[in-house]
Amino acid sequence: MKLKKLKSILDGVETFDSPNVDLEQYPTPPDIAAEMLHHVFSSGDIEGKLILDLGCGGGILSIGASILGASQVVAIDIDSGPLEIFQSNLEEFEVTNISMLQASVSHLSSMMRMKADTVIMNPPFGTRNKGADLMFLEIASSLCSKHIYSLHKTSTREHLIRKAEKRGLKCEVIAQLRYNIDKIYGFHKRDSRDIEVDFIKCWNARPT
Amino acid sequence: MKLLTHNMLTSKAIKGVQTGFPLNIVVKKTKTVETEFSSEFIQRMLPKLDWPAFLKAAQTLGVGSQLPDSPPTETTDETVLRSIHHALVEVEVIEGELICPETERKFPISNGIPNMLLNEDEI
Fold first, then answer.
1. Phi then psi for B92, rounded to 5 degrees?
2. A74·B4 Cβ contact <8 A
3. Which CATH code for domain B3-117?
4. Is the pTM above the cut of 0.90?
5. Which SUPFAM superfamilies match (chain B) (predicted)?
6. In this predicted complex, what is the ipTM?
7. What is the pLDDT of residues A152-175, one digit of tens each?
8. Which of B9, B33, B45 sits opposite A112 (nearest CB)?
């Protein structure tokens, strides 16, 4: 599927309209989701795979993965609000190979006894909730037998990669993207601003 | 909740729980969806599945009668793989509960979504 086609499909995915500041919920814009998934697909990590989406929100990454031929997707979020929107997106898109789960990603390592092939995620940036970005990566690596694809703030790149490598992960920055965050929260002074975001691929340096 | 998800989940995150698997299922409402069958995917899932847990869960949902008593080996005919596919990813618990086998802690399933959130004092 062409990137443009994927983006136009993902334009139709509803996102949540009252994000939770403490959870650092930022909806993934359709152009970024499409670019990310297109790359993951080309790397052979979607078609026929069992995929986990951590911090799935309204489900744009899961739905995109399903459209691109994932066998099954398990999508997890701590917050029931976005999951309800996800549910209505599933009905809208008539997607039947996604299962949702309400859980805290921080507990998932001991809650899941099976590894997925691929993890796709847009975790909290870890700005307000220090270390949340690294926590998501660590949990993802314990639940994934191949590759993790994730979005992180470019400004914390060196710190994040250093920490991740200390925990036995290999990281590769695939692309640097511009993430336009509309003024969602009161503390954003301007109406809209761009944040530099890294699209990162990680895997276990010592496969278990 | 699909039985694939059920086969993944444990309640081991609860303080003091040893294995927390398999979670018992209370079924109040189910739904059947149609999803694309891939024999390759099902065959790849077989070694990951805990077969006795899957079989018991499928029986609870009333879709276990077509399933073999032990996990099928390599040369499996498509009919068996299709029955596994059906029980694993096409039948969903919409309303019900998951129950920790050790503590009896209940996790509600509503609108098809299991709520596995734990309170701070449980972990």
1. -125, 140
2. yes
3. 2.20.25.10
4. yes
5. Trm112p-like
6. 0.96
7. 999 999 999 999 999 999 999 999
8. B9
